[in-house]
Amino acid sequence: MTTVEIAPKVSRGAYELVYREAGSGPVLVMLHGSGPGVSGMSNYAANLPVLARTFRTIVVDMPGFGDSPEVPYTKPYPEHAAEAVVSLLDDLGVDKAHLVGNSMGGFVALETAFAHPERVDRMVLMGPGGIAAEIFSPPVSEGARRLFDFMSSPSEAAMRAWVDTMVSNPASVSEEVIRERTERALAPGAIKRMRNVFASLGKPSAHGPMWTRTGRISHRTLVTWGRDDRMLPLEGAFFATRRMPNADLHIFANCGHWAQVERKEAFEALLAEFLTAP
């Protein structure tokens, strides 16, 4: 995987956030998922140089992940993280931005669009959380079970077992990524921070579950899903997009939960085409 070295910056608005930025043009904010050892760059480092050719691309460490400090979670994590996205836009003087979110990051993008619709332009959601109700799939997926296994007994072997469920082809994930994520996930306090995030998801939202609200999110949206996703199964894609008034759906073959990794070039081209189309 090709990566890029970009010095981190710190936003000190209502939320303190670490982020990387490259390129110029329409603003594109990249929101990562919630797995062990995750950061903005662990999700998107290889995509940033390509996307920066067209967009002012901002890769964020969401609260409690990467190098961004956590906050007390008085409501579900995605609602806090949505406030953090708006805080970052305020700090940067950006009125409106495109949002790209993978997994939990997709959930955060939807919460941002719901609570602050005027701050969001278009969205690209990659196997997003929060918008599917399990009808045929088990309530706890294989990927989620491996994630909880890691949290209860963290090790590099447990990390590899979890990563195996994130992709269709494990060879698509480099040793460098696995090592970096393992180091971050095993750092002091990292497991506790991740547990706090997942515990917050049990708190009731004042607005109801996200899947009950998607019909009220009218932003132009591209939902992408890996056909072989073992974290959030493909059936969730159809439930989600049927309710969203302006959502298109693209299914990637030979792809799991990380389209930006396994179908990198196709994902980047599809994203750019969707976000720049009239």
From TrEMBL:
<keyword id="KW-0378">Hydrolase</keyword>
<dbReference type="Pfam" id="PF12697">
    <property type="entry name" value="Abhydrolase_6"/>
</dbReference>
<dbReference type="InterPro" id="IPR029058">
    <property type="entry name" value="AB_hydrolase_fold"/>
</dbReference>
<dbReference type="InterPro" id="IPR000639">
    <property type="entry name" value="Epox_hydrolase-like"/>
</dbReference>
<dbReference type="InterPro" id="IPR000073">
    <property type="entry name" value="AB_hydrolase_1"/>
</dbReference>
<protein>
    <submittedName>
        <fullName>Alpha/beta hydrolase</fullName>
    </submittedName>
</protein>
<dbReference type="GO" id="GO:0016787">
    <property type="term" value="F:hydrolase activity"/>
</dbReference>
<feature type="domain" description="AB hydrolase-1">
    <location>
        <begin position="28"/>
        <end position="268"/>
    </location>
</feature>
